[in-house]
Amino acid sequence: MTRDKWAEWLAERRCGxxxxxxxxxxxxxxxxxxxxxxxxxxxxxxxxLDVGCGDGLIAFGALERGAALAIFSDISQDLLxxxxxxxxxxxxxxxxxxxxxxxDDLSVIADESVDVVTTRSVLxxxxxxxxxxxxFFRVLRPGGRxxxxxxxxASARTTGERRASGAIRWTACxxxxxS
Length: 179
Hints:
Elements: H1 5-13, H2 19-35, H3 37-40, E1 47-51, H4 57-64, E2 69-74, H5 77-89, E3 96-100, E4 114-120, H6 129-139, E5 140-149, H7 159-165
Parallel strand pairs: 1-2, 1-4, 2-3, 4-5
């Protein structure tokens, strides 16, 4: 099966084909996701936009928490197809939408239509970062929240090594906490 470079990276290269390491890493990522204060504050009935959704870890977590709708957006049709299949398998297709679009052009998403915008390890690849941020705030409803993070695993291989080295970085932005 031919995949685009993003799908190939997630499916094979990010873990070097080591399925045990992949399982460990996905478990760790789920724990990190679950500690995010913006996502933890997600209320039942809210809408989440996951920009650069990859394999859907964040959006599926939002649906598990009771989000009315999760919008999976990515530049990779292959990854969106994977998320679509997973949503169907999990019985979540009715609460899922899929958008083939980049972070810096969310024109397929209506103004003030989402409660939470989240992105993980995406902005580093976006050339027009200011445009992407403007798009995030355009699609947010008044009082909406943004959660951004960038993660670096440096050269550490095991979860313990990454934690000990400080390679795991996590940041969230909640506009209600600024004054």
